[in-house]
Amino acid sequence: MPLQNDVVIGDLRPEERSSAVDIFADAFLDFPLLQVMAGTDVSARGRLRRMFAMQFEPDAHIHALAARADGRLVGALTYVDSPDCSAMSAGRMVRFARIAGPRIFHTMRLFMRVERVHPQTAHRHLPTVGVLPPFHSQGIGRRLMEVFGRRCDEEGRIAYLETIRWADPERPSHERFYTRLGYAIADVVPMTDAWQVLTMVRQPGASSES
């Protein structure tokens, strides 16, 4: 029996948050927009971990899904409803600046490009989804996304996310993965010669490809 059939999707438990942060830090280590903030040196993963831990602070209003295999957390997904997805308290902004360090000004310039195309209408933002490397390519990420999509459908909410399109077509991209789940490109945000940010939305009830 394929492992994905043995995976249970449910709400993330408070005691699993640290493990979820580890999953996200590994999943986004090569994500170029976050590399601008965290750098690429040996301390980059630690900076990412601190940033992702901020998602679970009380004023972040985050919701999270968990994928478990034999009771072990193997994947996680977070989401937050507008307008909380664009809000950041002064305290959190200070902590974010400390994490980014000397990279903060360049980081904010690029982040503001994405924020300018952030939906102004009500939506549900999916900032992070990740799966432990040994469990990749087993359908777990898709299962998490499908549960997230059903929750959006139940409340009639537009789903919104951001991903990367590389200039080099040989580099792996999640664009097709999201498209097959019913997402459509909303904006293409120029960043560098090597990559762009795609913003994608999914309307309530949008069908997925099998």
The first-to-last residue Cα distance is 19 Å
Helicity range: 25-40%
What topology, given as strand order, has the largest sheet? 1-2-3-4-5-7-6
Return the string of H and E elements.
Answer: EHHHEEHHEHEHEE
Q: Biggest sheet: strands, sense, closure?
A: 7 strands, mixed
What are the segments in which pLDDT stays under 50 over at least 5 consecutive residues?
none
Strand content: 25-35%
Q: Rg to the nearest angstrom?
A: 17 Å
Please report the total strand number as a whole number: 7
Summed over residues and divided by their number, the pLDDT gives a mean of 92
Structural class label: alpha+beta
What's the helix count?
Answer: 7
Short description:
Helices cover 34% and strands 25% of the residues. The chain is of the alpha+beta class and 210 residues long.
Describe the 3D structure.
The chain is α+β, with helices and mostly antiparallel strands. Helices cover 34% and strands 25% of the residues. It contains 7 helices and 7 strands; from the N terminus they run E-H-H-H-E-E-H-H-E-H-E-H-E-E. It has helices spanning 17-27, 32-38, 44-53, 90-100, 104-115, 140-154, 175-180, and strands at 7-11, 63-69, 72-81, 124-131, 159-166, 184-190, 195-202. A 7-stranded mixed beta sheet has the order 1-2-3-4-5-7-6, sandwiched between helices. The longest helix is centred in the last third of the chain and has 15 residues, at 140-154. It is globular and about 45 Å long. The two termini are 19 Å apart.
What's the topology here?
Blueprint: E1 7-11, H1 17-27, H2 32-38, H3 44-53, E2 63-69, E3 72-81, H4 90-100, H5 104-115, E4 124-131, H6 140-154, E5 159-166, H7 175-180, E6 184-190, E7 195-202
Parallel strand pairs: 4-5
Antiparallel strand pairs: 1-2, 2-3, 3-4, 5-7, 6-7
Helix pairs in contact: 1-3, 2-3, 2-5
